[in-house]
Structure formats: structure tokens, C-alpha cells
């Protein structure tokens, strides 16, 4: 070790030895036995000289040059060796990345607001008519890279009426655009956010037929990306899911929800348990009421006002949801018509709810799901850099 640290000749010899051994393994099935043996002898000699404490610098250098000559003579030469080596390194890196994603940490984006304010989906703010400083190009780049904020601003070039927008179109890989028309002028939005002009959000706030005068701000919008997090895929191989975990599960095969995607919710009910959602917005598990002292439910049950006023509002049943929620929603929790209704979690199944109880499509609607659908649990938020960045949530 000391010779390797203090002798450049020894380091170069070790590096050549490893490189030749790697190439020998790669060509072992195509090299004639005699050629392979010659290379192995030269490798063994260099290894012996390096390990010999009494060998001189000249003897190491001589063995290294001999190995280089033998390797050049007997190895098969493939075209573009540098390209091949770079591709080899890239493939190994890709395999490692895929293995980490599959078995250890899987990245995930939060698409909706069902877990707010614990985890945020995509949010937007209409800035038209508001005294807000619109950031410069440098500022917008910084805001996006750090805060995940994107800004859109389009000013009317002539008087006209908003006539609607076309569908987003892919212009280049990872680059899309969407066009809309005001009067005779066609405007283009690059990298449009989802639901910019269409339901369910219509983030632009524009309606067909809306009138604009020259110089009016047609679009002045700030869109904040949803939280990006890593999913811990390891822990559930060694321990069972625990109440209060923020879990990620596959939707494929679960009736009445969007298929072939992943959902993220908080685990409330476990296998075999009986659940009630009281009119006081507290869940009752096998007769035991959850409250602010229940681990991992501290924030969820910290509400003081009605569901519309508090960020955390426990778990509403259908009766309470219809009393305080939007009248156009026919049911908030079909499995829980009132505080007396019960739901029995099937064996080896799980029951989950979103923290944003008034805006979450969860087990209150579609029931429980098999335990094997659980992929893992929340590990940490890696982007954007907000108060939610880092390990752990409550």
C-alpha cells in the first residue's frame, strides 16, 4: 500500500494490470488458448514484480512494458475502442441506476393536492392584476431550479376575444408548445403545464369569449411543480406497514381508480380492522378513536374550525363532507354515509386516506386494496427546495 501511494511506477503498473485483466475476461471466449496463456504469464510477472518489496523501479517498468507489448500483440482490436468503453461505462451506470430504482429508492412526483399540506402537488397562481414583480430571465431560471416555479406572461398585441386553445404538441424531445388565439393573433406557450386551458384546473383562468384590449395581460401565471420524492422500496420487505405511514401503492387491478399508475396516501386501517369516521372528523379503529396524540396523526387532527377553514381537517364522512363541501360533489365518502357506518378491512388488505380530506379520492370511495400492492413508503423530498425538503414528514 505504501509503495502504491509513493511510487508512480507502481500505480501505473497496477492500473495496467487491472485494465489487461478486464480485457482478458472480455475476450476470453474469442482468444486462442496459446495467446491467452501468453497474456496471463505477462500479467502474473508484473503482479509478482509489484509485490516484491526488493524489486527496483526499472524492473517494474520493464515488466509493465512487456505486458503492454504482449497485450497489443495478442488482443483483438475492435473499432472505436474509446466509444466502446464509454458505452460500457454508461450501460453499467444505467444498470446500477435501474437496480437502485427497482429495489431501493424510486423517484416519484406528486401530481395532485390530495396529500396537502403534508406533500404538495402542482399548484398555480393567477397573477393578472396583482402587483407582483415578474422575475428576469436569470431570476426565472433560479426560481425553477430551486423552487420549482415556472412563470408565463403573454400580453395582447391587438384587441380581440379569446377563441380557445389547441392541444399541446411535442416540438422536440422534452419540449412542447400550446397555441391559443386572441382576435387574429396566435400566441404560443412553450412547455405548458398540464390543464393550462382545460379541466380539471384551467390554470390560465381564461374562458372562451373573454375580451382583451391591446396591452392587456392575457396570461400572467406562476406554476409550482409538485414535490419530487424518493420512495423507500426496501423497508416493507422486512417489516409490515404501520398506521400513519405515507405509502405508495400500485393502482393496477384495484377497481374504480385510475389504472397503471401509483397513488400516495396515508395508511389509516390495517388488515382485519373495523373503521368508523365520526361526525367529529376523527377515525375510530376497532373502537379506539384517533386524535392529535396518535403518532403520525399530530397535524391531521390539529384542526379547530370547519373543514373549509383548516388545512388539516381529520377524516370526513359523507354527511360532514356534504355539509361543509361543494354541493356539486354528490358523495364525499360513499362507504361512510354518517358517523355510525363501519367498514371492515379485509384480511391482508390496507385502508388509506389523503391528508387533504375534502379533496382526496381514497379508500372512503373505493375501499381497501391488497397488501402486495404497497410499493414502499415516503423517504424524503429532493425537489423543489421548500420547507418540505429533506427526510421525514409528520
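-> sequence recovered:
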Amino acid at each position: 500500500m505504501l509503495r502504491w501511494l509513493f511510487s508512480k511506477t507502481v500505480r501505473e503498473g497496477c492500473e495496467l494490470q487491472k485494465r489487461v485483466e478486464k480485457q482478458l475476461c472480455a475476450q476470453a471466449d474469442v482468444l486462442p488458448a496459446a495467446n491467452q496463456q501468453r497474456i496471463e504469464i505477462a500479467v502474473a510477472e508484473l503482479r509478482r514484480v509489484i509485490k516484491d518489496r526488493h524489486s527496483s523501479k526499472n524492473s517494474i517498468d520493464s515488466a509493465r512494458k512487456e505486458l503492454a507489448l504482449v497485450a497489443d500483440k495478442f488482443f483483438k482490436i475492435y473499432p472505436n475502442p474509446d466509444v466502446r468503453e464509454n458505452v460500457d461505462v454508461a450501460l453499467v451506470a444505467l444498470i446500477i441506476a435501474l437496480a437502485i430504482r427497482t429495489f431501493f429508492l424510486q423517484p416519484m412526483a406528486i401530481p395532485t393536492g390530495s396529500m396537502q399540506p403534508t406533500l404538495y402537488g402542482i399548484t398555480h397562481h393567477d397573477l393578472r392584476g396583482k402587483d407582483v414583480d415578474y422575475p428576469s430571465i436569470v431570476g426565472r431560471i433560479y426560481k425553477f431550479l430551486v423552487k420549482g416555479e415556472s412563470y408565463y406572461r403573454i400580453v395582447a398585441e391587438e384587441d380581440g376575444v379569446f377563441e380557445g386553445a389547441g392541444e399541446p404538441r411535442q416540438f422536440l424531445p422534452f419540449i412542447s408548445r400550446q397555441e391559443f388565439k386572441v382576435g387574429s393573433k396566435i400566441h404560443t406557450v412553450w412547455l405548458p403545464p398540464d390543464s393550462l386551458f382545460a379541466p380539471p384546473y384551467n390554470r390560465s383562468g381564461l374562458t372562451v369569449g373573454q375580451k382583451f384590449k391591446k396591452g392587456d395581460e392575457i396570461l400572467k401565471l406562476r406554476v409550482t411543480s409538485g414535490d419530487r420524492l424518493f420512495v423507500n422500496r426496501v423497508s416493507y420487505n422486512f417489516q409490515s406497514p404501520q398506521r400513519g405511514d405515507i405509502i405508495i401503492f400500485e393502482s393496477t387491478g384495484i377497481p374504480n381508480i385510475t389504472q397503471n399508475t401509483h397513488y400516495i396516501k396515508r395508511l389509516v386501517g390495517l388488515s382485519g380492522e373495523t373503521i368508523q369516521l365520526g361526525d367529529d372528523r376523527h377515525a375510530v379503529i376497532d373502537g379506539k378513536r384517533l386524535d392529535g396524540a396518535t403518532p403520525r396523526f399530530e397535524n391531521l387532527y390539529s384542526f379547530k374550525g370547519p373543514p373549509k377553514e383548516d388545512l388539516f381537517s381529520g377524516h370526513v364522512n359523507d354527511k360532514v363532507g356534504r355539509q361543509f363541501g361543494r354541493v356539486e360533489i354528490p358523495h364525499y365518502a360513499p362507504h361512510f354515509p354518517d358517523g355510525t357506518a363501519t367498514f371492515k378491512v379485509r384480511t391482508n388488505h390496507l385502508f388509506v386516506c389523503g391528508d387533504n380530506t375534502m379533496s382526496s379520492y381514497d379508500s372512503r370511495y373505493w375501499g381497501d386494496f391488497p397488501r402486495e400492492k404497497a410499493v414502499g413508503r415516503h423517504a424524503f423530498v429532493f425537489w423543489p427546495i421548500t420547507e418540505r425538503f429533506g427526510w421525514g414528514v409528520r
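The mean pLDDT is 91.
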